[in-house]
Amino acid sequence: MMRWKTMLLALIAVALGVSVSQAADLKKLKAGYLPTSGHLLYFVAKEKGFFQQEGLDVELARFTNSGEGLTALKTGKLDIGSFGTSAPLAFIAKGADFTVFGGQMGEGHGLIAKPEKAERFKELKNFKGATIGAVRLATGDVVFRAALHEAGVDWKKDLTIKEFDSPAAVLEAVKKGSLDAGLVWIPYFTLAEKQGLKVVKYSGDVIKSHTCCRQVALTSTIKERQADLEKFLVALLRAYKFYLEDKNGTVDVVAKYVPIDKTDLYKDIYGGHLLVSPDPHRKSVLQFWEFMKKADYITSNESIDNRINVRLYGNALATLARNEPKEGLWKKLDKEFRSGDADLHIKAH
Q1: What is the CATH class of 19-106+210-339?
Q2: Is a pLDDT exceeding 50 seen at residue 2?
Q3: Which of 109, 148, 146 is nearest to 130 (CA)?
Q4: Which of 117, 147, 171, 192 could staple 197 via S-S, CB 3.0–4.6 A?
């Protein structure tokens, strides 16, 4: 039996371009994800061997929503999680010792409704009296609550927001008519369209370029495993390069984790309503924190400056630039990283 295990390990190692001893020495990390095409950096890094190339054995653990995933992270069942922007910030506001150290996706949420109700929700003032569904702690939910607040609509009094455990449940409730509209994330707004519903607004129509899923870990993990997390980000950067250069290959990989029609996946990933980047986007996260407080989604006097670690991402970029000096992408990303994010603005509707 041991002989067969050794042979299997050798075959895996050869396939990944590493020796048997190297394969045995891979550092283990457990990362939590949601079944969305927006988490493609994880899927590509795993399936294309980029984690292994960096000496990492990354186990991907699936969760239904951000609250579940962050609870697992908080209790030490995960090393890393990618669970929105609003969710980790809400946990931090309640005392969780989390640190954001990278990015995954931006935008990627949408408001869906039946065709006969879609026109009503094109203007935020018309949300008054409506029943809206949202996934607990979802970033898209906070984007729309912040926009409603800005438009003078009191989301606590002027409408009813029902929270669900999954975007699939929101979609079904909209179809059945128990909700006037619902907020879901990618790929569920694409699936909603295929089932006869309409996407009334995308989250990027409300706050352009807003962040969504960030790379989050316990602050203690950041301190104890800095080298491993830098390598993790190097692997995500390589996955980002693959995403830019091989669209069909990326769709093929994502289809293993999000088993829907590949034509729909391609539309989801490259259709203009999903932003992909491993950059932590520090300034945008800080602004999102302020949006959450202003909209009365959280209450906190804490500064989160020290809850966003940009050093690991900067070091990962520097490693790639040093090892591959002719690769223009690393220089481009480094320039964007150093120049910082543009200001986020809630658009009037």
Answers
A1: alpha beta
A2: no
A3: 148
A4: 192
Given this chain, do its domains 19-106+210-339 and 109-206 carry the same CATH topology? yes
Could you give the CA distance from residue 27 to residue 223 in angstroms, rounded to a whole number? Answer: 16
Q: Report the CATH number of the 109-206 domain.
A: 3.40.190.10
Sign of CA dihedral 326, 330, 336, 339: negative
The amino acid occupying position 250 is T
| Residue 91, helix vs strand vs coil | helix
Ranges of beta strands (E only) in the chain are 27-33, 56-62, 80-82, 98-103, 105-107, 109-113, 131-135, 160-164, 181-185, 198-202, 214-218, 274-276
- How is the chain split into domains, by residue range? 19-106+210-339, 109-206
Instruction: Judge whether 73 and 98 are in contact, CB under 8 Å.
Output: yes
Residue whose pair of structure tokens reads 């002027």 in the numeric block: 158
Place of tokens 């988490």: 39
Average pLDDT over every residue of 80-88:
97
230-140-90-126 Cα dihedral, nearest 10 degrees: 160
Residue 303, C-beta contacts closer than 8 angstroms, at least 6 positions apart: none
pTM: 0.91
Q: E strands, 212-317, where?
A: 214-218, 274-276
